[in-house]
Amino acid sequence: xSHENNQTIYRTTSARTGKMMIIxxxxxxxxxxxxxxxxxxxxxSPAPVVAMMAxxxxxxxxxxxxGKTITQDLSFIESSDFRTLAFNALPGEPDNNPTIxxxxxDKVVFNVVNDGKSFHALGVTKDTEGFGGIVPGSxxxxxxxxxxxxxxxxxxxxxxxxxxYYYICTVPGHREQGMxxxxxxxxxxxxxxxxxxxxxxxxxxxxxxxVESSDFRTLAFNALPGExxxxxxxxxxxxxxVTITANNLGKSFHAFGVVSNPEDFNSIVxxxxxxxxxxxxxxxxxxxxxxxxxxxxxYYYICTVPGHALQGMQGSFIVE
Length: 320
Known about the structure:
By secondary structure, the chain is mainly beta. Helix content is about 10%, strand content about 30%. Strand 1 (about 70-80) and strand 2 (about 85) form a beta hairpin.
């Protein structure tokens, strides 16, 4: 005679349950430590709606350099309790958040280093509060990709109009904690230089080829000296849209940019760079850039690889 055994059998003992609870608790503790140790990083990445509310970048035609260049070294620093943030020195100490005085057409080059223990980023804005309205080209890092402790970077700001600007840490909340300095922009000292015109709606397309002599001693655009099409002059109106296509037809490395000084390959204006000396176009490669012509004046297009402009890779870029 058979009997069915309907007794319930438990396969998890209280000891095993206890071990599982300990493992889960350990995972939660480790995760919490990692999360809160990176707290400054999490708050430095605002949600898209927050970024939209912060304001948009200045969309005026890029300013052109017509004056002097100022170099400003800035370091992000923090108080021991992290409640006070500043540039170069804490409040009450010499060189705290230094004020920069410049004129329309001057350029300031920021050399920035993060000497703190949290995440930071730099930008220039006309907004009197918040972290929006950042002028294009003035950024070192960003709120979503900040400088980590010990990292550094370089940025430029060219004053396009008179008034007060601010260099700030663009990580949300850091400006309010003290990371903000003034940039006082006075009138142009360039003998009545004109400001950039608003966009005209007129577009131009130019093609420039990097070429070299057989002995590599002479460099040029489109054709060698004495040949038709050698370093052609480009002439546009302020506010026009300009598209440059550059092709490397040589055997060495090249890069392109419109500059204010042909002897300074770092004086690029109007966001006109194609590649760079640190990441140039290889033989056979090409690239293009579209930008708005800035303030009237005489500029130059060059190969921005050091020494190449002096070997002949430069032409006139005239804005009327």
